[in-house]
Amino acid sequence: MTLSLTSALKPSAALSVSYLERRRLFFTLMTLPAIIYVLVIGVWPLAQGIWFSLYEYNLLKPGRTHFVGLSNYVDLLSDAVTRGAFVNTVIFTVGAVTVELLLGFAIALALWRDDRFNRICLALILIPVTITPLVVGLIFRALLLADYGLIGYYLAEFGISDPRGLFANPSSALATLIFVDIWEWTPLVALILLAGLKALPGDILEASEVDGATALQRLRIIIIPLMLPSILLALTLRTIDAFRVFDSVYVTTGGGPGNATNTLMLHAVKQGLEFFNIGRASAISNLTLICIAVIAAGFILLIRKADRKANGR
């Protein structure tokens, strides 16, 4: 009887193994196009950029291409324009993200109560996020032009801005670009923080209110500590995105006046597409990528630490 049971089970086991193999093969084939897409669109250009950054490679002088190792990276450290672009990028990132976080948190608190009016307000304030940065830059450039801009004309007329316009003045151009970024991306930060607020445990907040805690005390002692993962997530996304800003700067100022609004990504594009210095452009792009990777790694560690602390682990 034992032999008959064993012989009866053998085909079923073989069928199960065959089914699992076919299932594994099916899912492998299904993911193959995505893997190829990532390799072609992401990994290959990245590897090619790293390779080009090790060469003196100018499209106008292809015959003089030669291996220079890390010389392109070393030259960037002594290049005043690159250092200025890095400083502009840091100022833009810190200024924009800081204000976006504060304003976004204030908007999230204002829209915390779930009613029809707040839902309508949330839908309306999310409109800027749906517009691409390129179009946003063109809109603000048209609005702030001193000669025929709807806002810029009156600012110049009443002496509030430079007669040439806010984007044409070195002292106000970068601040104006920061304002444009704040206008566009503060609603996204507010949405992320609002989701974090709605996920807070209501019993803890109700207990603190019963115990007589003021709104400021609840905000400082309960809400902000429990909101740290959401706050750090918003900071991570916006910092990475702001550090690689290009579109809005390109269509509004083009890095000018002079190099007052030149950023790392814009500087890389200029080196590659205007001066055809592919080696230098690749080195600048890789430098930007390294900075973004360091920022992302730091924020990820902070998010994990905040999440463990919020969950009491």
TrEMBL record:
Membrane topology value: Multi-pass membrane protein
Residue stretches making up the ABC transmembrane type-1 domain: 86-299
Compartmental location: Cell membrane
Membrane recorded as keyword: yes
UniProt keyword terms in alphabetical order: Cell membrane, Membrane, Sugar transport, Transmembrane, Transmembrane helix, Transport
Keyword Transmembrane helix: yes
CC annotations in GO: plasma membrane
Residues that span the membrane, as ranges: 25-47, 85-112, 124-154, 174-200, 221-240, 283-303
UniProt-listed GO biological process terms: transmembrane transport
Organism (species): Rhizobium pisi
Protein name per its UniProtKB record: Multiple sugar transport system permease protein
Superkingdom of the source species: Bacteria
Family, as annotated: Belongs to the binding-protein-dependent transport system permease family.
